[in-house]
Specification:
single chain, 207 residues, mainly alpha, Leucine-rich Repeat Variant, two-stranded antiparallel sheet, 2 strands
Length: 207
């Protein structure tokens, strides 16, 4: 069937959720990257197709795999380390991406892309989400210490997160550190604070 399709027909078939798995398999191997990209965003593609396209030579194809809600977490984790930030942002756009992975991606973005990323949702809403989801404390601290995040922070509104922090699952020392950071007039001092050991009982944590 694919043999008799022109490019526009292949593009439509690749995008159509009613296209058979067999046809999608064939379309996922055509030379035109736009066709493969359409296959990559089709929610009815098989795990095998997604796994193959996650390593496609074209970053646009990989980015569409990252955005596809049918893509399993194991592939999202792989794509979150892609050399192209457009692919990483595709993982962020995926509704099934867990908060801890979003935070890790934020830590790896360039300053310009992080600023654009923060424009999608306010900096404080991201912090609120990360705290509620109880992402690893070292990941959260890395996010909060980034220059782009410093610029995005609204000092007055940051204090409203204190209640969220206090109700979180972080230990007492971690809560105190987070509240101190969110209540400061600037994040700049945190770049020094975060290198200090965090004590809990007899244990010392260095981030």
């Amino acid at each position: 069937m694919v043999t008799y399709m022109d490019t526009n027909e292949m593009l439509r078939a690749a995008f159509n959720v009613n296209t058979s798995v067999a046809t999608l398999n064939t379309l996922s191997e055509v030379q035109n990257w736009r066709v493969r990209a359409n296959v990559a965003q089709n929610v009815n593609v098989s795990f095998e197709i997604l796994s193959a396209l996650a390593f496609d030579e074209d970053e646009n194809v990989r980015a569409n795999v990252a955005r596809n809600n049918a893509t399993p977490l194991e592939l999202l984790v792989i794509l979150s380390s892609d050399s192209f930030e457009s692919v990483k942002l595709g993982v962020v756009d995926n509704q099934k991406t867990p908060a801890w992975l979003v935070a890790e991606i934020m830590c790896s973005l360039t300053a310009d892309n992080l600023k654009g990323f923060l424009n999608r949702k306010s900096a404080l809403k991201w912090v609120d989400l990360f705290v509620e989801e109880h992402i690893p404390i070292d990941t959260l601290l890395s996010v909060l210490s980034s220059d782009a995040f410093c610029e995005a922070k609204d000092n007055g509104e940051a204090r409203v997160l204190a209640d969220t922090v206090n109700k979180s699952k972080y230990n007492i020392s971690e809560k105190q550190m987070l509240n101190n950071i969110l209540g400061e007039n600037t994040y700049k001092s945190f770049k020094i604070i975060k290198n200090a050991p965090l004590r809990q009982g007899k244990e010392t944590f260095n981030f």
